[in-house]
Amino acid sequence: MTWIRRVYLYSFAAIGLTLTLYGGIAIFQVSLKATILPDAWRAKSEYSYLLRQKERDNSPEAKKAREEELGLQRKADGQKALSWAIPFLVFGIPMWQYHWKAVVREDRAS
């Protein structure tokens, strides 16, 4: 195996493995936030300014509207995170698998 091919195969195998790890970690993080740590979604809310404005009103209707908005925000944050994590897995696993098998096959041949 030439050194250029070796660098290519190892580089793309590393990139594929990195994509796979990132996607797996992101899916694990989303599942943790959805099941065990549901309040973690509140930490990074794009609507925090609107929620702070509504918190001035302490009526039961405003509290109900805030909780409903937080629920929708949690769902949207989860969907957004999964929309990034799933493609990383879909592209990372085959990319790593193909290039790593080629490395192993060429090492056996030489």
In short:
The protein has one domain (3-109). Helix content is 86%, strand content 0%.
Which helices and strands occur, and which strands form pairs?
Layout: H1 3-35, H2 40-43, H3 48-55, H4 60-109
Helix pairs in contact: 1-4
Structural write-up:
- The chain has helices spanning 3-35, 40-43, 48-55, 60-109.
- It has 110 residues and is mainly α.
- It has one domain.
- The longest helix has 50 residues, at 60-109.
- The protein is rod-shaped, with a radius of gyration of 22 Å.
- Please outline the major beta sheet: none
Helix-strand pattern, N to C? HHHH
The fraction of residues assigned to DSSP E strands is under 5%
Tell me the count of domains.
1
Count of DSSP E strands? 0
Q: Measured on Cα atoms, how large is the radius of gyration?
A: 22 Å
Give the fraction of residues assigned to helices. over 70%
- The low-pLDDT segments are none
Mean pLDDT: 84
Structural class: mainly alpha
Kindly, what is the distance between the CA atoms of the first and last residues, rounded to a whole number of angstroms? Answer: 7 Å
Overall morphology: rod-shaped
What is the helix tally? 4
List the keywords.
110 residues, single chain, mainly alpha
